[in-house]
Amino acid sequence: ICSFWADKNGNADEEINRIIYRNKLRYRDSGYNLFHFDTGSGWPDNNYLAVAKGKTDIDILRWRGTNGTNPGIDNDALIAKVEEWQRRYDLVLWGCGADWMRIFFIHEAPEYLGGTRSAKWYEQSRLWDTRTPKFRKFAEEVIEFCPDLVLQVYKNKTALIKEMERVNGVYFWWD
Question: pTM for this one?
Answer without folding.
Answer: 0.76
